[in-house]
Design a protein that fits this description.
Universal stress protein, Rossmann-like_a/b/a_fold, single chain, binds magnesium ion, about 280 residues, alpha/beta, UspA, Rossmann fold, Universal_stress_UspA, binds adenosine-5'-diphosphate
């Protein structure tokens, strides 16, 4: 059961946010693997939502209890960890807004990573990603890994997308630190997308700086570092290169403009999460 990737390195605790939907099963699987690999405690959080404007909706939810299949799912996830000797705990919260409860729990428990599905029960096609995921990525106090349905992270090739910004640099550092810690990691692809031909030299500079950083950080020779600069639409290119190169994890920074609800995360990050079907996305904060 235990895989031998060590992608996330030293994590003390992980918060899996799950609505027990089909869509969120990949996230649960990755959470179990990551918790076992990293000997991190796994908190499995299910938020039972209600409408605060309708007081009866809470008492109704309480009365009805947690659906049997949801309970079974949560217990199954927990047991997958505990049977292998790991530590896991189910947390059930009642809250009008799932994302708020998830962010609050991450703060309270001081978790190092939140793992969510890309979509959930509602699965509205017109939305890039589920609204809970979107808000969690934007407001989380720690890294967030978004796992699209059915994605498995083998962790041989990872891609870090960088525009040289403050947050992207954090993602760069995370990629290098994974390179050092994770014995299965073979390739780090660093991608910088120039929107126009004339921006290419800037992209090259960003990647040059990344190569220098890799040297400073003493990336072991086992890990091959490849840098790619291309012209195109950033989100489309990031997803395409990840797909073509078989990178099952994309690292990105989030550059949220504080205060504006509308811009809770950078639009490239949001689009990549929306477009990605075969890679998980780690949003580094
Ligand atoms: N009630 C909830 N409790 C815990 N996690 C949730 C809850 N609702 C959603 N999530 C998390 O957010 C992910 C995306 O769900 P969501 O944003 O609600 O999408 P959708 O609109 O498709 O339902 C889920 O896979 C799950 O990880
Ligand atoms: Mg939902």
């Amino acid at each position: 059961m235990v895989r031998t990737t060590h992608l996330m390195g030293e994590l003390e605790s992980i918060l899996l946010a799950t609505d027990a939907s089909e869509q969120s099963k990949g996230a649960a699987q990755e959470a179990v693997f990551t918790a076992l690999e990293c000997q991190a405690k796994l908190y499995i959080l299910y938020v039972r939502t209600y409408y605060p404007e309708i007081p009866e909706s809470l008492s109704k939810a309480l009365e009805e209890g947690i659906p049997e299949e949801t309970k079974n799912f949560l217990e199954k996830v927990r047991d997958m960890v505990t049977k292998e000797g790991g530590e896991a705990e189910i947390i059930i919260r009642d809250h009008p807004e799932a994302w708020r409860a998830i962010v609050e729990e991450a703060e309270k428990l001081n978790t190092d990573l939140i793992i969510t599905g890309k979509r959930g029960r509602t699965g509205l096609k017109k939305l890039f990603m589920g609204s809970v995921t979107e808000k969690v990525v934007g407001y989380a106090p720690c890294k967030v890994m978004v796992v699209p349905k059915g994605v498995k992270i083998h962790g041989e090739t990872i891609l870090v997308a960088t525009d040289g910004s403050y947050y992207a640099k954090k993602a760069e550092k995370e990629a290098l630190s994974m390179g050092k810690r994770c014995s299965t990691l073979k390739r780090i692809l660093a991608l910088s997308v120039a929107k126009r031909e004339e921006d290419l030299p800037r992209a090259s500079k960003i990647l040059e700086a990344f190569r220098e950083l890799a040297q400073e950080e003493k990336l072991p020779p086992r890990v091959k570092l490849e840098t790619i600069e291309v012209v195109g639409n950033p989100a489309n290119m990031i997803v395409k290169v990840a797909q073509d190169e078989g990178a099952d994890l994309i690292l990105m920074g989030e550059y949220g403009v504080s205060g504006l609800e509308k811009f809770i995360m950078g639009s490239t990050t949001e689009k990549v999460i929306g477009l990605s079907k075969n890679s998980a996305i780690l949003v580094v904060k």
